[in-house]
Hints:
By secondary structure, the chain is mainly beta.
Amino acid sequence: MKISLGPLKGLQGIVTFSNNKNRMIIRLDVVNVNYIVDIHPALVQPVDYPV
């Protein structure tokens, strides 16, 4: 699932792991650098951009 991180406008990533409904691990590809973030799903919104 490709996502958009609401408050972190302009950043997109791929959900790589979700262990429950309260936490998601997301990989962000920003300027060719991978970041791993642990974020509450309430801040995540699905988007329909082509991959």
